[in-house]
Design brief:
Length: 458
C-alpha cells in the first residue's frame, strides 16, 4: 500500500513541528528502565511455565504494561493521558477497522468505545480502563491482558472526566489520529478537548510520543508481523496461480481472501489492491472487478492482519505468466530501484535518504528508456513515496525525521505507472532494520522475472 507525496509532505511538516517542540523535553531514567525490564523478565518466566500448551505466536504477558511504563517515563508528574478506542478510518481500510492502535498498544484490549486514563503521580502511575459493551473481552479478561486492576464501565467515563480534569492541569490526548495526513480528530477527541478547555486544563498532544515508542518493535512484535507476512505470501502465490487471460480481478481477490481463511486469518490490514491493465496504473485502485485483458500486467498489493499486526506486500506479474519485452524493461527497472533501496536500509538512514536512492534510479532508468526527457518528469510516472513504517497499522504511525534504528520495520515499494500503455509495476517488501543492516522479512516471496514466470507456468 502506497503513500502519496502530498501526505508525505504534510507528515514531514508535522514531524518538524514535533522535533522542534521536543527539543526541550529530555527524557531520563535509564536505570529505572533496566530495573523494570529485569522485573518483568522474572514475572514472565513464572507465567510462561503455566501457559505452555500453545505454540501460537503471541505477545508477552507484560507487553502492554511495559508500553505504559515507557510512556509514563515521558509524562510530566501530575499530568494525565486519556486515550480512547475510537479509530480514525483511512480510506484504504477494510470494513472492520478495529480499535485505535495506540489504545490497543497500551491495553491489549480491542474495544473501539473504551477509554484508558493514566495519571502520573510522583511515585506511581494510576491506571483505569473504562471498558465498553463493544469490547471483545469481559472485564476479567481485560484485566488479565492489560494488567490494569481498576476497571470501570465506559458509560461512566464522562462523569469521571470532570474529576480527572480537576486533579490534573495537563491533559495529553491523541490530537493527530491520522499520522499520515493532516491532523484528523474523532468526535471523541473534539469533545474531550472542549471539556478540558472549559475546565481550564492545558491540552497537549501525545501522538508523536506514542509514535516514537511504536516505531521500534520488540522481538515478539516482529514475530507477529512475520506471521502476517507468511500468510500474505501464501495468498499472493495463490493469486499468481489463479491468474489467466480474461480473469476478473474479483476472482483474484477471492483467491487471496480464501487463502487467508484457510490459514484462519479473517482480516486484512487494508482493502486489497488488485488491478490489471489500466487499473495497474491507478493510485490505490480498489474496485477489483474488471476482466483483465490478455498481455496485461497486474499490480497485486495486499496484506493480511494477524492480531492487529500488518503485512503489506506487492508483486506485479503478467496475467498469463509471461512478460512482454516492454513489461520486462519496466519491471527490471523497478526491481533495480527496489533492490538498491533495500540495500541502503540500515540504522542511521532516514526515509529521505531512501527516497533519494529510489528516485535517482527510477529517473535514470526512465531517461534511458526515453520515457522522460528530464528528471522532474519522473513524478508523472511515480506519484508516491518509496517507504512507510509497518506494525499495528499497514501505514504505521511514524516520525519521518527519526533515523532508522534496529527493530524498526518499513516497506520498500518503488513503482512505475504508465497510463498511456496501461502498464503499472510496483514491487514491495517488508524490511526489518537490524544492528548491521536489514533483513527482508518477506524474502520467501520470489520476485525475479524468471522465478515468477516459472512459478506461474508450473
Ligand atoms: Mn505499502
Amino acid at each position: 500500500m502506497v503513500v502519496s507525496y502530498k501526505k508525505f509532505f504534510t507528515l514531514f511538516f508535522l514531524s518538524l513541528v514535533f522535533i522542534l517542540s521536543a527539543c526541550s523535553e529530555e527524557n531520563t531514567s535509564k536505570e529505572k528502565k533496566e530495573e523494570e525490564t529485569a522485573n518483568s523478565e522474572v514475572k514472565q518466566e513464572v507465567e510462561e511455565t503455566s501457559n505452555k500448551e500453545e505454540a501460537k505466536v503471541s505477545l508477552p504477558d507484560n507487553f502492554f504494561l511495559d508500553n505504559r511504563k515507557k510512556l509514563a517515563e515521558k509524562m510530566e508528574v501530575g499530568s494525565v493521558v486519556v486515550l480512547y478506542g475510537e479509530r480514525i478510518r483511512e480510506p484504504y481500510f477494510t470494513e472492520d477497522i478495529g480499535a485505535d492502535r495506540n489504545f490497543y498498544y497500551l491495553t491489549g484490549v480491542k474495544d473501539s468505545e473504551g477509554f484508558i486514563v493514566l495519571k502520573k503521580n510522583k511515585d506511581s502511575l494510576e491506571e483505569t480502563l473504562y471498558l465498553s459493551r463493544e469490547a471483545e473481552v469481559n472485564s476479567e479478561e481485560a484485566e488479565q491482558i492489560s494488567k490494569i486492576s481498576t476497571m470501570k464501565e465506559a458509560e461512566i467515563f464522562e462523569e469521571d472526566l470532570n474529576i480527572i480534569l480537576s486533579e490534573s492541569p495537563t491533559l495529553y490526548l491523541e490530537l493527530n489520529g491520522n499520522k499520515l495526513g493532516e491532523p484528523v480528530q474523532t468526535q471523541t477527541v473534539k469533545n474531550l478537548k472542549s471539556t478540558a478547555s472549559e475546565k481550564g486544563s492545558q491540552v497537549k498532544d501525545i501522538s508523536e510520543t506514542l509514535a516514537s515508542l511504536r516505531m521500534v518493535k520488540t522481538e515478539e512484535e516482529i514475530n507477529m508481523i512475520k506471521e502476517a507476512i507468511a500468510v500474505t505470501i501464501e495468498g499472493i502465490k495463490t493469486v499468481m496461480k489463479t491468474a489467466k487471460d480474461n480473469i476478473n480481478e474479483a476472482e483474484l481477490e477471492e483467491a487471496f481472501i480464501n487463502t487467508l481463511h484457510e490459514r484462519e486469518i479473517d482480516k486484512m490490514s487494508f482493502g486489497p489492491i488488485i488491478g490489471g491493465g489500466k487499473n495497474s496504473t491507478e493510485f490505490h485502485y480498489q474496485n477489483n472487478n474488471m476482466e483483465i485483458p490478455k498481455d496485461s500486467m497486474i499490480v497485486n498489493d495486499v496484506g493480511a492482519e494477524y492480531e492487529y499486526y500488518a503485512a503489506d506486500i506487492t508483486r506485479s506479474f503478467p496475467v498469463d505468466g509471461t512478460f512482454t519485452d516492454r513489461q520486462k524493461e519496466i519491471y527490471e527497472l523497478v526491481l533495480k530501484a527496489q533492490e538498491e533501496t533495500i540495500n541502503a536500509v540500515k540504522p542511521g538512514v532516514t526515509v529521505f535518504d531512501l527516497e533519494r536512492i529510489a528516485t535517482n534510479t527510477l529517473s535514470a532508468g526512465l531517461l534511458k528508456l526515453e520515457l522522460i526527457s528530464d528528471e522532474g518528469q519522473l513524478f508523472d510516472y511515480y506519484p508516491h513515496v518509496v517507504t512507510h513504517h509497518l506494525g499495528l497499522e499497514a501505514h504505521d504511525t511514524y516520525n519521518m525525521l527519526q533515523p532508522l534504528e534496529p527493530g524498526m520495520v518499513i516497506t520498500v515499494e518503488p513503482g512505475i505507472y504508465i497510463p498511456e500503455e496501461k502498464l503499472g509495476v510496483r514491487i514491495e517488501d517488508d524490511i526489518l532494520v537490524t544492528e548491521n543492516g536489514n533483513e527482508v522479512l518477506s524474502k520467501d516471496l520470489f520476485k525475479s522475472i524468471e522465478e515468477i514466470e516459472s512459478f506461474m507456468k508450473e
